[in-house]
Design a protein that fits this description.
Length: 99
């Protein structure tokens, strides 16, 4: 399947390998990617198509989120679906004290 605007992808190469991004735009062999945190919608990351893969195999989103906050929420939901995250919990819970 061809990667298009609105798809959620996983980086395969570079220091960000394994990270999820949303495809904001395409420029030939390059994709413009954002995650809403390190790479905002206003300053997307430019990455080659061969260095990413589709995450989850779902189709593209009907509309790209308008804000970084909404984009982070969508990516968190996708991450939970792919990796089986706990329902109602988000983020890193390593800080919780265990006795």
């Amino acid at each position: 399947m061809e990667i298009q605007t609105g798809h959620i992808v996983r980086a395969l190469a570079g220091h960000d390998s394994g990270s999820l991004y949303c495809v904001i735009a395409t420029e030939g062999d390059f994709l413009l990617l954002a995650d809403g945190k390190g790479r905002k919608l206003t300053q997307p990351k430019r990455k080659r198509r061969k260095h990413v893969e589709l995450a989850g195999g779902s189709g593209p989103m009907s509309a790209i989120p308008d804000s970084d906050r909404e984009l982070r929420r969508v990516l968190a939901q996708t991450r939970d679906q792919l990796y089986g995250g706990s329902k109602g919990q988000g983020g890193n819970h390593a800080w919780q004290k265990t006795i």
